[in-house]
Batch of 4 targets.
Target 1
Amino acid sequence: MLSRSRCFSRTFGRSVSVLSQSNKGLGQRTVSGLSSGIQIVYKNSQTCDPKPVSSVSHIRYFRTSTCYKNEVVTVNTPAFAESVTEGDVRWEKAVGDTVAEDEVVCEIETDKTSVQVPSPAAGVIEELLIPDGGRVEGGQPLFKLKKGAGAPKAAAAPPPPAPKAEAPAADAAPTPVITPIPTAMPPVPPVPGKAADARPVSAVKPTTAPAAAAATAATTGARTESRVKMNRMRLRIAQRLKEAQETCAMLTTFNEVDMSNIQEMRKLHKDAFLKKHNIKLGFMSAFVKASAHALTEQPAVNGVIDDTTKEIVYRDYVDISVAVATPKGLVVPVIRSVETMNFADIEKTINALGEKARKNELAVEDMDGGTFTISNGGVFGSMFGTPIINPPQSAILGMHGIFDRPVAIGGKVEIRPMMYVALTYDHRLIDGREAVTFLRKIKAVVEDPRVLLLDM
């Protein structure tokens, strides 16, 4: 019994000693991401238990983010829509600039919209692979980013106040042991006036009035000019408008709309409309809905000529493009399936598209596929104008400003809020009778929205 106890104590002591040495050796290893294990087996003497004693030790190592801190990644051009193949780069950042995650590094201007390229992570711009204004395609490398190399620039914090107890007196002699020897000269107090031009008073001559006037004229009358490269959107707009003039046989017909009833309806129901739908009731929804109603009754205005196959394509749906002016050019986001919408749906869609246009977030899909366009120049104070067709469409409606004018009502002259409207159409497909009927239908619906309820 005593022999077996000594054998067990000796075996246990050896196991602990070897196990501690093994763990110490494993602790010195630096293999990242691996799990290490050591199995130790001791054979007992004949007087001991023949079963081996085994010990298994597992140590897990973790990789920290330091390994990825200075990693350099290459950011590629995002994929474009099917109808867009290339674009021009406009850089917002330069080499060496610090960017935060999702911060816009550049914009790619295409024929129809601008695509923003954000930074995938926080870091520093290492290299720009495309020059400013260069042309890129989808998937092409844009720039290199060193991840985690810096932090976004923060506002400069005010310097901490100097300690009060340790500050010596102003006229006390500094102690050589404590105060270091100054290495720079004290600042020179500012001298009033221009020291470089200091001259005796007798040498200074007063400036004559004609000389001063000539100097002012030379400054204000400078004839200068600057050149700015046209962006791709503006170039594409110019190209499409010129193509419309050369392809379509454009003709314009006019009419005027009495806005009294629609203004009265808006005045009576705008508060209830806002409370229920959480959006304001405007005049644009009335013209969009009136256009959809007229397009279903005049299919030719909603159709288009396919010049390739020499066929006329008639659509049984209404997708109305609404022209929106932006600093980079005219964009036409599309309101789809307007024939199925009510006033609230139209107002919500117009508001959402307008917000995306102001934030420069319109995608190509938001502007593809319109069958008819409405341009509202009245928001800028336009009184009269002839819009140009947005190809490949066949017609466009132009809205203008609302002005009080004298009109004949029931044999009497009254002052009414009137708006001129214009319809430009492709005379190859749409005859004058259809165009005039279409415009009169819009006039009837806007002047009396009950026509929609009666389906007249």
Note: Residues 43 and 52 are 6 Å apart (CA to CA).
Target 2
Amino acid sequence: MAGVNGDGKGKKDDNGIGTAIDFMLSNAKLVLGVGGAAMLGIATLAVKRMYDRAISAPTSPTKMHQGGKRSWEEPAWMGSSPRVLNHSMKSTVSRSLQTLPTSSQACEPASRPKPLRRSGACQSDLQRARMRLSLQERLWEFYQKHVNIPAEEQTVARRAALDICAELRVFLHAKLPDMPLREMYLSGSLYDDLQVVTADHAQLMVPLVLEKNLWSSIPGEDTIMNVPGFWLVRRENLEYFPRNSSYWDRCMVGGYLSPKSVLEVFDKLVGSINWPAIGSVLDYIIRPVVPSETLTLEVQYETDRTLYVDFLPLLVMGDGTSLIAKPHRLAAERHENLWRQSFRVAETARLRALDQEDGGCRSTCLKVAKAVCKLHPALHRLNSSQLTNAILLLSEKEGDWTQEALADRFLQLLRALVGHLEAGRLPCALSPKVNLFCELTEQEVDELGYTLYCALSEPEGLLKTTQ
């Protein structure tokens, strides 16, 4: 009994519980013996210390004594259990958090269990889940305000492009009736519902007719230049069908059909058209763009709306390969005889098919990424083909493309692009030997990689810079 009164001095009133514990400890050996009392003492002492700390806690847990030490701290042994969440458990928690609403009450069960020792990890996961939900909302808001083009604007732009196509068709047939051409047609993202921000670009495809027995195609990787994705078109059977047997022999350089020479022919023709007169009839302002990698017309069809129409000669070979007269960006002079292989039709078809199979958000993710690159100066060099193929490659690894997963897939796309830039290679999903980054300089790769890497920590920044 000697220990009952002495330990109670200077302490707050504990309603007799502390006194009872002391009484039990001091008299335990009378009932349990020395060994039993020792075991009971160890267990009870831990409970008593926790209780004493709890009732002595100040109003504010962060209140400091004059000595600089907090007057109440969590016991050192609290949370020191060796049990931790393994990888499987963390994944389960993460997946569960993604489906939770943003309300803080969502984590509270109906009955109050004992506090979790890993509450800090739960709060961290919950914060990440809320950030994903926030990004999801921002992406859809960005899509509605900046990505999606009103149907009326698209209709007017298509009508302007069609007017230009009609004028060129009439002029070419009248000026050069013997030029072997198939019917010209309009193409591009404006006609695939993949154009973003503003309806300002269309492609006028001009299919050339080549005699099958006079021309053959050679893939770039089978030549000394070794450039996958580009092709040579070689003149054949010159001993039986001498020069000028084909209309396109006039565009032959070193035994190969030169896309540069073909463009020069059309450039002279288009340059001879009286565009001011045609523009006055159509109520447009039309002028060729100089300089330009391809033959491009600038069409101002309304006071504040401008459309750029690329004039693209096209070859469709016997095996279905589509080649366009668009030069290699970094080595146009050295590779002036190379025709670029176009995968756009097949890429778009695959993207559409995948979305139709699972109601996915691939096209939406692509349009958001295109808008970000179009509006962000440091990302201008990332084009539609590169973004489309990055998404197609990502689709091979990731199965969840539901609309609710847009934020996660957008972040994955950023990570994937950073990885491809770091490797200096983005393989074409339809032809892996083709490197879609082969026309970027080292400085451009570094700038793109740095911008996207920084965006991983704050992806919403990409959306803020464009607003």
Note: Residues 17-55 form the longest helix (39 residues).
Target 3
Amino acid sequence: MTPDEERLLRRAVELARRAREDGHAPYGSLLASADGTVLVEAHNTVRADRDISAHPELKLARWAARELDPAAAAATTMFTSCQPCPMCTGAIDRSGLGRVVYALSAEQHAALQPGGGFPRVPQEGPALPEEARVPVDGYYT
């Protein structure tokens, strides 16, 4: 990691610190262009917004998908205080961002949570694959 990338990652950690000071969950992220220009910053607002999807990584992925063309998105790097959760990872993948750099891994994060985080919800299926494939078949071609 370059000194400029370390500076940007430290800024993400600072956003997380400020978020916690302001009563939000302690997560912060920023999106930078290839030359290191900060394009947008965000912090977690799940509690304030009463929106379980108000993670900073998801906010930045949405912003990039809405505001950047695919080539510009692919040239960005997201710097984030913690490794993105599966929800955010899916959004990041779909938004076409170039890369993600995080300060704290998911495993390290889980060790800081009593009980290790949220309980897993059981999922069952596939239950009707032949019927469910009909509306999807051909959509991606």
Note: The CA atoms of residues 130 and 137 lie 10 Å apart.
Target 4
Amino acid sequence: MLFRNRFLLLLALAALLAFVSLSLQFFHLIPVSVAKNGVNGKSRKRIMPDPVTEPPVMDPVYEALLYCNIPSVAERSMEGHAPHHFKLVSVHVFIRHGDRYPLYVIPKTKRPEIDCTLVANRKPYHPKLEAFVSHMAKGSGASLESPLHSLPLYPSHPLCEMGELTQTGVVQHLQNGQLLRDIYLKKHKLLPGDWSTDQLYLETTGKSRTLQSGLALLYGFLPDFDWKKIYFRHQPSALFCSGNCYCPVRNQYLEKEQRRQYLLRLKNSQLEKTYGEMARIVDIPTKQLRAANPIDSMLCHFCHNVSFPCTKNGCIDMEHFKVIKMHQIEDERERQEKKLYLGYALLGAHPILNQTVGRMQRAAEGRREELFALYSAHDVTLSPVLSALGLTEARFPRFAARLIFELWQDREKPSEHAVRILYNGVDVTFHTSFCQDHHKRSPKPMCPLENLVRFVKRDMFVALGGTTNYYDACHREGV
């Protein structure tokens, strides 16, 4: 009898707990299981939403926090995920540099006091930070293509210089490198233990923040690497267009896009009022304040939790910041809708995508060079690539953003190769214009390499009006 009563009591308690749990989920007091940072088939939200914490309407503060990308716990990612019968062949990584000091200052205000020395016991922290500094100090004889050899290998100023990488930026890319190491080296053995120089392809623009970001990621990926095996190439153009940068039609598209931006700003009375208030505070003409690009400096204050500047006339505050940031979000939305930027993006991204496809094709043929390629770049590098790929829902590249192309071989059919595209850890392959309908026509779980090749070699030009090659697309009349 005692046993029966205990059993009934436990049964009643279990039923009560089940009822409470369902009630909490129904009233949204606890989150139900949702794929974090994912994009599923039913959702058309922008890439990298957080279904649990993302606000129901566009929130400029939330978007700014995502842009800052403040290092915290290790993130979950989808890099390296594939059916068991696929073998990883090569990886191509495009990064935006990490958190940096502003490129502009708000006139007549004090510069934000950010320390750009690297201190191991200061937040944000990374266990490899001290070892990174020590290793960079040994790199004075590193093989860097001119003029990179004149740049410092890590940030070191007590008061940051304009555009300088911060400790936050270094930690962001140490984390990126360690994440990619755990996936591509430890799990998939992409590089052999005795890897050689020709198995890495490293390229950066001539800015200290991109070189240092590339080195931070590389150190997280290959800790204590042999400096004699490292060769960074210099890329003069932020578009990574090498010898194919002259493109008059691309510049025409850019001029039209800039005109669209100007007209959108004129229509935003709240934005103009905000600029006027801020100009009064710092006692300069509104036109001069706008030209100083105040959002760049304000984002630094925001990301580093430093108060916005004040003068005897008052303080720039969070409301000013929200208005300008919200306009940026609206501008990004209209940019995707008006399609003017797409022409610029297709022509701007073609050279670097063409290089990447060429490396993938050589790897698919069995060549063992350039198995891991790293391009350390800028937001103005990644943004056109994202648009050219058709990723219209992708957020603007945050600090330390990463865009990755993976090449896989089907072990069951070794002649067949497939690609995956990942943006900040999210698999966006089937959101690209060249593979968004693939799953409707084929049972294959990954996107065939030939889809990407056909897109870069042909379809990009078809979208530009029927031309058949990059030169003709860049020089055609009547755009």
Note: Confidence is low (pLDDT under 50) at residues 17-49.
